[in-house]
């Protein structure tokens, strides 16, 4: 199925209730389980990724499918390793291409027995859960922080706790801080110095927890604000002092002319214009924002140079390649060193406004959400497989209709 998009200019104030953060929701679900909490989580995400986590935790089966949810796959691998029994954990076809060896090796060193059912180093996994024994572990900090978050969350519940030494650069660091802060809320203190994180053995205390609204989802609203100067957008539910590193979106978009004002009534975005000629940023701490910024910069005619993108190749799709391919359809010629950067020097081809442009989404929610606002410049825009957005932001299409972004459903053969 495809959506044919259209944009009708809307001026003035709009108000959007943002979705809950799936990163926080999935951590809270695991911490709830580890603390045997009787409490319900408030503002829990209704995303596919959180439904996947909830489905496994509430299941009576021994075989679980988490679909495309990276956090669920990684967090549950650690969790099931310490639950006595034999479990099978699998996911979508893309999940079977996303590496998990670093985490499996670490858990096996702690006494778990995890086997690969298909390809060495990748899901699906057969997990023989047992009482794990903690101690010291060394593991790379530069592949996915989700492996480290998974180990940290189970650490207090295993004998002797854990002392993790991270080698290489630490990527996605704010997600580790989020994990440790939520563990602290549940009564477990940790210690982090340089590249060593220590979590003592201890007990989680159940508590009533509330998930924050999602700053990554807010990024698409910053993009809309940057492209629609006549709009004033009130985003409801965001926290100014947030556990989410993606709250840095406000600083990034300040450079692109979007001003953020916090008040008790919400987070207000307004477009005050920019004199910036170019945008340069290292995304090592906020990898999920790269697609929003790449599309925005092109549409605003701001050449850019992004670094710190080394993890983008192993996410829902190879996001660097996906961005290059799809922006090329609009005439923007991007380049990469094929390792960790992406840039656009302003070079573009004129594209006929008669011909439809079909944006492939590669089963990646962020491709659909970052590209849809582009209809404002490319009126013949179609988004393929538009419902991928349910991975993190199920109400995306209804919400953006408030800003004048309408869609019409087209059936395709597949
Ligand atoms: O821990 C988390 O909730 C996440 C960590 C990041 O992944 P990596 O650590 O693999 O970069 C991020 O991209 C993902 O969307 C969510
Ligand atoms: C990378 C993402 O998710 P995950 O790794 O949890 O599948 C994302 O939501 O952009």
TrEMBL record:
It comes from the Bacteria. It comes from Carboxylicivirga marina. Its main location: cytoplasm. The lineage of its organism: Bacteria, Pseudomonadati, Bacteroidota, Bacteroidia, Marinilabiliales. Pathway: Metabolic intermediate biosynthesis; chorismate biosynthesis; chorismate from D-erythrose 4-phosphate and phosphoenolpyruvate: step 6/7. Its EC number is 2.5.1.19. This is 3-phosphoshikimate 1-carboxyvinyltransferase. It catalyses: 3-phosphoshikimate + phosphoenolpyruvate = 5-O-(1-carboxyvinyl)-3-phosphoshikimate + phosphate. It is found in: Cytoplasm. Belongs to the EPSP synthase family. The keyword ATP-binding does not apply. Coiled coil: none annotated.
């Amino acid at each position: 199925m495809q959506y044919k998009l259209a944009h009708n200019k809307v001026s003035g104030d709009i108000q959007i209730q943002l979705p809950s953060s799936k990163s926080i929701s999935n951590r809270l679900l695991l911490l709830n389980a580890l603390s045997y909490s009787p409490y319900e989580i408030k503002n829990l995400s209704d995303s596919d990724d959180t439904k996947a986590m909830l489905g496994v935790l509430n299941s009576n089966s021994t075989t679980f499918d988490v679909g495309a949810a990276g956090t669920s796959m990684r967090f549950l691998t650690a969790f099931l390793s310490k639950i006595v029994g034999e479990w099978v954990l699998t996911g979508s076809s893309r999940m079977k291409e996303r590496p998990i060896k670093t985490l499996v090796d670490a858990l096996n060193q702690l006494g778990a027995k995890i086997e690969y059912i298909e390809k060495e180093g990748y899901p699906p996994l057969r997990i023989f859960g047992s009482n794990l024994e903690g101690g010291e572990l060394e593991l790379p900090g530069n592949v996915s922080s989700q492996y480290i978050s998974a180990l940290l969350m189970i650490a207090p519940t295993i004998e002797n706790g854990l002392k993790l030494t991270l080698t290489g650069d630490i990527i996605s660091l704010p997600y580790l801080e989020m994990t440790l802060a939520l563990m602290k809320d549940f009564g477990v203190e940790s210690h982090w110095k340089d590249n060593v994180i220590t979590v003592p053995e201890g007990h989680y205390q159940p508590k009533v927890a509330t998930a924050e609204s999602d700053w990554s989802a807010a990024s698409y609203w910053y993009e809309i604000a940057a492209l629609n100067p006549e709009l004033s957008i009130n985003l409801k539910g965001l926290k100014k002092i947030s556990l989410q590193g993606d709250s840095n979106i406000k600083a990034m978009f300040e450079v692109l002319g979007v001003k953020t004002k916090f008040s008790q009534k919400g987070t207000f975005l307004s477009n005050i214009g920019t004199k910036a000629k170019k945008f340069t940023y290292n995304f090592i701490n906020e990898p999920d924002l790269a697609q929003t910024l790449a599309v925005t910069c092109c549409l605003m005619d701001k050449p850019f140079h992004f670094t710190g993108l080394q993890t983008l190749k192993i996410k829902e799709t190879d996001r660097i390649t996906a961005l290059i391919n799809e922006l090329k359809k609009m005439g923007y010629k991007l380049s990469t060193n094929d390792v960790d950067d992406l840039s656009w020097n302003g070079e573009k081809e004129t594209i006929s406004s008669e011909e439809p442009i079909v944006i492939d989404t590669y089963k990646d929610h962020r491709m659909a959400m970052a590209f849809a606002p582009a209809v404002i410049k490319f009126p013949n825009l179609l988004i393929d497989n538009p419902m991928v957005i349910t991975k993190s932001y199920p109400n995306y299409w209804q919400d953006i209709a408030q800003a004048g972004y309408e869609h019409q459903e087209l059936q395709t053969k597949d």
